[in-house]
Design brief:
Blueprint lengths: L12 H18 L1 H5 L1 E3 L8 E9 L11 E7 L1 E10 H8 L8 H20 L9 H4 L5 E2 L7 H14 L6 E5 L1 H9 L8 H9 L3 E3 L6 E5 L5 E5 L4 E7 L3 E14 L5 E5 L1
Helix pairs in contact: 1-4, 6-8
């Protein structure tokens, strides 16, 4: 038995497999940060903090003639997104139905992926997480309303990184509005804007729910670390005659190791 208590849910192995596969399918495209930065872990549910390798001096010690310093750590944050599945739908799944209603799971997957992206790119002060955009030492660049100006602004971001000695390749996280605009835009001569941006950054361009505007990051490695304790998992909460209440959960910390390895592009 694990802390997820899946063994207590009135769900067959086949239905658990269906739920897990649906969650994976929905999470994969939305977890933008994991496509662009370093991933460490998973270290397990018991992992509570990341060692920062630093200390803070304590003002006093219990005995004269003794100095003291306390180790600094970054505590993991547990993120949970609840959802429910109708027991009738689960019974139909066990009968072989292929059109099971898992809309609540889909929404929970989107919410928790968005939360992770927000924490990585924009920070989470209450959790002690400084995001990429806030940590950046580069002045933010305005994308503007005209999509045809995006290549110029992204090129400026890449030039700023190169001038700071930050090598590529680079990745581009685009918020949903900016991403849609890029997909819908064809430059003069019929050349897709999406392909033009990929050539500029020489790396991936990803849809990033939770990102406001866009962020260009170096992918040389060692600049940003998402450290995960419990990787995204589904647990059991409770059930009644009609529904089974489940949840998506993960625990993580995030650190910016190089402040000048990213440039924010504001919308």
């Amino acid at each position: 038995m694990t802390h997820l208590l899946r063994e207590h849910a009135p769900i067959t192995e086949a239905s658990w497999r269906l739920i897990d596969e649906e969650a994976l399918a929905r999470l994969t495209p939305a977890l933008a940060a994991r496509k662009l930065i370093d991933f460490a872990g998973p270290h397990g549910w018991e992992h509570s903090a990341t060692d920062l390798g630093r200390t803070r001096s304590l003002a006093d010690a219990p005995v004269d003639g003794v100095t003291a310093a306390q180790r600094r750590v970054l505590a993991t944050v547990e993120v949970c997104a609840p959802f429910s599945v109708a027991r009738g739908e689960l019974r139909d799944a066990d009968r072989g139905a292929s059109d099971i209603d898992l809309a609540a799971l889909d929404q929970a997957a989107h919410r928790i992926a968005t939360a992770e992206n927000c924490a990585v790119f924009h920070g989470w002060e209450a959790a002690g997480i400084t995001g990429i955009s806030k940590a950046s030492t580069h002045e933010a660049i305005t994308l503007g309303e005209d999509c045809e100006s995006y290549p110029r602004q992204v090129a400026r971001a890449v030039e700023a990184l190169l001038s700071a000695g930050i090598g590529g390749p680079y990745g581009l996280a685009l918020g949903p509005e900016a991403y849609t605009a890029v997909l819908e835009t064809t430059e003069h001569g019929g050349y897709p804007l999406l392909d033009h941006l990929r050539k500029i950054i020489d790396g991936p361009l990803v849809w990033a729910p939770g990102v406001r505007g866009a962020v260009v990051v170096s992918q040389r490695g060692g600049d940003f670390v998402l450290e995960v304790g419990e990787d995204l998992s589904i647990g059991y909460e409770s059930h009644d005659a009609d529904v089974v209440r489940l949840y998506l959960v993960e625990s993580f910390t995030f650190r910016v190791l190089t402040n000048d390895a990213a440039v924010e592009l504001t919308s």
